[in-house]
Specification:
Largest sheet: 8 strands, mixed
Shape: globular
Helix content: 40-55%
Number of strands: 8
Structural class: alpha/beta
Radius of gyration: 20 Å
Order of helices and strands: EHEHEHEHEHEHEHEHHHHHHHHH
Distance between the termini: 42 Å
Amino acid sequence: MAREAALKITVLGAGAWGTALANLAARGGREPRTETAVTLYARDSAHVAEMAATGVNARRLPGVPLLSNVAPTADLAAAADADVFLAVVPAQALRAVLANLAPLISAAGAPVIVCAKGIEHGTGRFLSEVVSEALPDHPPAVLSGPSFAQDVARGLPTAVTLAAADEELAAALAGLLAGPGFRVYSSTDMRGVEIGGAAKNVLAIANGVAAGRALGASAGAALLARGFAELSRFGRAYGAEPATLMGLSGLGDLVLTCTSAMSRNFSLGAALGRGESLAQASARIGLAEGIYTCGVLVDLANARGVDMPIASAVDAVLAERITIDEAIAELLARPSKPEG
């Protein structure tokens, strides 16, 4: 990562979260420097023209002005000129975006901070692995934790975790984004941070279904606790550190996503619980990453003998192998056993 005073940061993806992060980066964080130039990349040139003309991303984050040193662009070559990249595109689009970016980057070494939450469908790759495969000369990092774009954009107190394999790099990248309302903890446990972010989306669909079915607060609490047990078993099987799973990017993000209607995964589950079809709910709510993560999460769990009945039930419901009522009955009929 460049250490000169002027720093160039590119945010790939101009959704609500990408826009909020672009403003955070533009404010300068804790890293001492005199200037920060942030490029906010979106594929849609009309969308970019709107942002450039109005100074607001009205499509994704209305009412939040872009800072003066955030420059929207639809030119991927211009976006490739950066000291640090924040990849905020959907998880399933990450590889394609990085593959298009790769031949345009003139210098190796710029870190790529993954800000999406998921596991690549079809390959079973964690997103840090996707970065390593698509851009082998650029160290990956992962940003995750309980955070809604609207809260961050409004300056409401938020705390997240940023992980990289190198401890000094993780701390330096955390310093780029940390600010008065945005606390960033650093970590070297990339796998733990990205597992928490991916698994919680699937489990939030289950909690949403329970809410939509009006199963009560007790059922919601039980699903959250047992969902965390599943997340923890999966994380341990894939090398995550227990402290990470208990932290912001694990338990913290799970609690937020499983209890708030601001979560698209929870809202999707709630819509299904009320009787909407998956197509109807998806069209109204928008992208819910848990839909695409669910199958591969269950496959990875099965590959290492990890018991994830809640995630498996969500996968079966989404694939229409069973109904919601059948899933509830199967979960309640599981044999009693010691808690763990």
